[in-house]
Every structure is written in structure tokens, then in C-alpha cells.
Specification:
With 194 residues, this protein is α+β, with helices and mostly antiparallel strands. Helices cover 49% and strands 19% of the residues. The protein has 9 helices and 6 strands; from the N terminus they run αββββαββααααααα. A hairpin with a 2-residue loop joins strand 2 and strand 3.
């Protein structure tokens, strides 16, 4: 850990409780499981959102660019390294707001009202689209209908040419586990219902 990181961690400690985890080749700072800061490659980044985006933009902070193998993703974290070095007191209230915004957003994302099909285990955007096209519009409907009947609907919609692994994925999603954790007796029982 370099001197800048150590000073930043001590600074944030005064603003509220947080913990650290490895993220994107650096260290993510979390408050109540909500990430609000990233320290990587000797730079300090703080999460944007709501009205703090405008504050960071006015202060000349650039957004974080996460370089992947073939693309560059610009994410809503702002580089506050220079600002922290020159005007750390200016950041106190902003970072408190960022921490609170992160907690509030995390709570909303975890709330029942915000659950999306792709948020369930084993599901991703492609499967969410398939399920919706088959007439299952949301998580509550998915859970009410059940994995077997959702599979039947998807199978009918896609002409009976759907891989049986999809049934396992739906059953895992319904149970809240990864599909590879389903035991063989359960898989056989599911197949008998199809």
C-alpha cells in the first residue's frame, strides 16, 4: 500500500465504517456491502450518482476507464486523486454523500420491487429475454409459475428445440442456487414433470 492509499483510507475512516475487497486489480471500499470507492494503480476513484456527478464534473474529475481485453468501459467512478492531494477537506461532505447514495442504491437493488429475472441465479439477459418472450414478465410470475412450467413455455415458444440444461438453470434460479449444485434425483424428478 502506498502513502496516498494509506492517507485516503485514514481519511475515509473518519467519515464512516467501511471494509476493503480486491476489485478490478485494485481495492474496492464498501459500506454495508455497497461499493463507493476504488483505489487502483495509485489513483483514487469515488462513485458518482445523483447530484455528485455534477460536483465532480465541475471540479474537473475524470471518469474511470476500465480497460478490458478488447474494449474500454467508462464507469461512473470519478478520479479524485489530485483533489484529495490539494483540497481533501472539500471532499469530506461529498464522500459522505457518496457513501449514503451507495447504501441507498444497494438497498433498492436488493429490494423486491427492483428484482429482475436476470438477477436470479443462473439467469442472464439472454435468458431473461427468452422467458419474457414466452410470457413470463417478471420474477414474481417466474416463481409463481415454477421452473418446470417456465421451461415448458420457453420450449413451446422456441419450437421444442431447447437444451435441457435450461430446465436445470430455471430450477436453480427458483431455488436460489447455481444449477450445477442440483442433485441427480432432483434433476430426474424435474425431467419427469416435463
Amino acid at each position: 500500500m502506498n502513502h496516498l492509499e494509506e492517507r485516503f483510507f485514514n481519511f475515509v475512516k473518519k467519515l464512516g465504517k467501511f471494509n476493503k475487497r480486491s476489485m478490478f486489480g485494485g481495492v474496492g471500499l464498501f459500506t454495508e456491502d455497497a461499493m463507493f470507492s476504488l483505489v487502483t494503480e495509485g489513483r483514487l476513484y469515488v462513485r458518482g450518482g445523483r447530484f455528485v456527478d455534477q460536483q465532480f464534473e465541475k471540479l474537473g474529475c475524470e471518469r474511470y476507464k476500465h480497460v478490458k481485453k478488447t474494449t474500454i468501459a467508462t464507469v461512473n467512478y470519478f478520479d479524485i486523486s489530485e483533489l484529495f492531494e490539494k483540497q481533501p477537506t472539500l471532499l469530506s461532505d461529498i464522500i459522505k454523500d457518496v457513501m449514503e447514495n451507495s447504501r441507498v442504491e444497494r438497498e433498492f437493488k436488493k429490494s423486491k420491487e427492483n428484482r429482475r429475472l436476470r438477477d436470479l441465479p443462473n439467469m442472464q439477459l439472454t435468458l431473461e429475454r427468452m422467458v419474457k418472450k414466452a410470457g413470463v414478465p417478471d420474477v414474481d410470475s417466474f416463481l409463481e409459475i415454477g421452473a418446470v412450467d417456465v421451461f415448458k413455455k420457453v420450449n413451446t415458444t422456441y419450437g421444442g428445440d431447447v437444451d435441457v440444461k435450461l430446465l436445470w438453470k430455471f430450477a436453480g434460479a427458483e431455488s436460489g442456487v447455481h444449477w450445477t449444485l442440483l442433485q441427480e434425483p432432483m434433476k430426474r424428478a424435474l425431467l419427469q414433470q416435463v
